[in-house]
Amino acid sequence: MIVETKEEWDVSTGTSVRRTSLLFLRFHQWEAVTNIVAAVAEEGVGQRYLIEHSSGSGMTNTIAWTAHRLARLHVDDEKVFDSVIVVVDRTVLDGQLQDAIRQIDGSGKIVATISPEDVRKAGATPV
């Protein structure tokens, strides 16, 4: 379950309106997340996994929940991953994923954005 908060512009009143709603993963999203987490817990790190999604089928929430669950995964009381890195190739998806992961986490401490400016500051050349 995700508590989603959106700020929308109400054109009739000319004001900003904040709306909060509960979102539940659809079955195919929940199945993908739980299957990957179970496989990683059983097989360990270093494997490759693929989730196929069609356009409009909720890939943002599937990716966000998978990253969230893997970041918090413990096996035998030991944390499995030190970090989870999500790489996307579209600016719109990047923003959506950052928002979705922040909504799930709630603490605001889990998402770090690496922008081209951050790359330059580190002395590398952005691609």
Q: What this model shows, in words?
A:
Strand 3 and strand 4 form a beta hairpin. The protein has a two-stranded antiparallel sheet. The model has no long low-confidence stretch (mean pLDDT 84). It starts with a strand and ends in a 6-residue tail after the last helix. Helix 1 packs parallel to helix 2 and helix 2 packs across helix 3. It is globular and about 55 Å long. With 127 residues, the protein is an alpha+beta fold.
Secondary structure layout:
Layout: E1 2-10, E2 15-23, H1 27-43, H2 59-71, E3 74-75, E4 78-79, H3 91-105, H4 116-121
Antiparallel strand pairs: 1-2, 3-4
Helix pairs in contact: 1-2, 2-3
Low-pLDDT runs of 5+ residues are none
Q: Strand order across the biggest sheet? A: 1-2
- Main sheet? 2 strands, antiparallel
Helix content: 40-55%
Per DSSP, what share of the residues sits in E-state strands of 2 or more residues?
15-25%
Element pattern in H and E: EEHHEEHH
Distance between the termini: 36 Å
Quick structural gist:
This protein is an alpha+beta fold.
Observed structural traits:
127 residues, two-stranded antiparallel ribbon, single chain, globular, alpha+beta, 4 strands, 4 helices, 40% helix
